């Protein structure tokens, strides 16, 4: 047997065991038992790992590690890997029986956790059903437990199962195997590809690959169909702990197979690795996930436990708020003669340029009509409803109707960009998709899941082409008719601890994550924002950032969205903002941080009426990224009476802290951006960092200790959607949400934010937070904005600064940076050295720094570091 990259030769084991025919067969497997014994590790149990087609036990080599104190038995199935080629055609049930006879020969006893990938998922699940007396848990990765007879096979398998093509690609050549290996991006290293190719060098050794493809039971008359049905139904009886780890870029086992498994095993823990494909074991740190899950679920050999501890969200550790149904203020104001006919939602612009205004009375009636119509159409409590509607009256009506009946609103706004929006919609597994026409066209083209409902009534041909069942206009009419005929909306209000919404993060530090909030948590979030912004029926909200348009009705605050492109919040102009302010009189104004500079830059376009409207704003807020004080000062000329407040928060917990301009000036200069003291019912602590920028296990509220910012509040999200490990990491300090931001508290209890924890620079001279470096660079007069990048290994990282200049800045996409002029390089180096004590190895300029799509303000420091690393190694780096 040739050496295999990443496999200790002592793990290989050959064993004879009888198969389903009664004949003795030679099996090859990886067995980590002796390896663990050498290290004095007492196994907690056994991982029985079963590969699929066209791989081998090599797939599971990463499970041999000291932080996984479980004996690994990874088999090569007969006709596959380094096991015997017997010439026997093996069906699905035969392989389950073969595996059971092998484990009997090994005298394996519980606790056993099965691990299955691809076809190995079906076979290991069949083994689990037949050996449940030894079964402790299951791990499944990119597999399928069922295929409906009427449902088409994935296109990749349709081609592979074509009789003429099948044998040519699976056994006559190694095309099927090489295609599978090519699915990973970036490409697998050559030595890893060799590890997969080695057992299948000849046509004779590839017969098993051909047999596996031939055994796919797509039709009702296929010999393996009864076994597939037996296992698919039987798995519903298995209540053991289960982990589903998924690569959503898989062209074979897409998310529709994951949805099917979750319907059969609803208690399963799930983690989707957004960038991973079919070979998720190669594309992601799956062994790290398995290590954490096994420890959390079963403990160790020394401290075993039968099941994971009871789930407690961060919000349960915090001071609670008074709960009431979300949207209750809408009904209360509609019943109040003083407010009933006043504006609740104001739309500006629109196709006719006129916009529209919806009163509290009309909004309340609209919500109840839509809620009744949705129920009548089949939407049920707990169903996920993806809302792809432009902020305004339509979105408000549908959203609060979902809250009313207990449907879970999936809110992924267009600010994520097309790719981000696609990942969010597909990854949220919606049951329903309600959208404007443009969104429905995209959903059809990209095959987004969910039964479809349009906002407006569409012509028959359009409905058919887009797969639309009904419209909100039609459902509202039918709901109104039912209520007029004496069928009131008598659906119970949702349980406070039922899921209410899935809100997607900005994706500024990786793929956008779905933060799941319950009705209790979302209600507490609305309360926190309302108290911080001091919203009330008499004081409306101008929402210059699309997600905030959803808050007003829950707080009883009239809301208007400026006439703007919601996907480009940084392009909000002063005249558009003035028009929105004038629609409400003396409102609170909220914008994305990126909009501040553009508002100032376009203020010369204001006429006398516009300036008067701007001057009437009662308060001004901006959050999503730290706001420099000089921008808030610049707004004083435009809004002299407005209290300039900059709350700090995140999608997972909005708001956390807040400070006004007077408070910022009182705090003075410091390391980072001062975001103020915690808002009511919020606690803040710090997890200090070691020399490599990793958080320690300590928690402190002492002043001037730099570390990861921890938050406790009644409005912290419940969990991340299908991101088990991300949720666990964010909750590694019991009762706290680890924000991923880095900062410190001062002696007045104020919080200073200094960047993202992942972007901390661990240099040979100590830790530097990115904001420290960037503020120093931005003190140079010609510098508009700076981004700090790190190159090299942690502990000895070097500092690189990439910046925009006042003269060279051009809005839009970033380009390829160029070395700064020598005089500018020296000025930046000197400023960073004097203020931070750090040496900068290189300074570059670019027309625009890369930022997140939604806020247009958070600098993508990870992209800067990747570019700098490639450039300083002498490689050709792409544009940012």
Question: What does this entry show, briefly?
Answer:
This protein has 29 helices and 36 strands. It has 880 residues and is of the alpha/beta class.
What does this structure look like?
By secondary structure, this protein is an alpha/beta fold. Among the domains are: 9-298, Rossmann fold; 760-880, ANL, C-terminal domain (GMP Synthetase, Chain A, domain 3), CATH 3.30.300.30. It contains 29 helices and 36 strands. The strands form six sheets. It has an eight-stranded mixed β-sheet, with helices on both faces. Strand 31 and strand 32 (766-768) form a beta hairpin. Helix 27 (770-778) packs across helix 28. The radius of gyration is 29 Å and the shape is globular.
Report strand %: 15-25%
Question: CATH homologous superfamily of the domain at 9-298 - what is it?
Answer: Alpha/Beta hydrolase fold, catalytic domain
The number of helical elements comes to: 29
Give me the Rg, rounded.
29 Å
Assign the CATH class of the domain at 9-298.
Alpha Beta
In whole angstroms, how far apart are the ends? 46 Å
Average pLDDT score: 90
Q: Could you list the spans in which at least 5 consecutive residues all have pLDDT below 50?
A: none
Helix content: 25-40%
CATH level-3 fold name of the domain at 9-298: Rossmann fold
- Per CATH, the architecture of the domain at 9-298 is 3-Layer(aba) Sandwich
SS elements, strand count: 36
Q: What strand order characterises the main sheet?
A: 1-2-4-3-5-6-7-8
* Biggest sheet architecture: 8 strands, mixed
Overall body shape? globular
Query: Structural class given helices, strands, pairing?
Result: alpha/beta
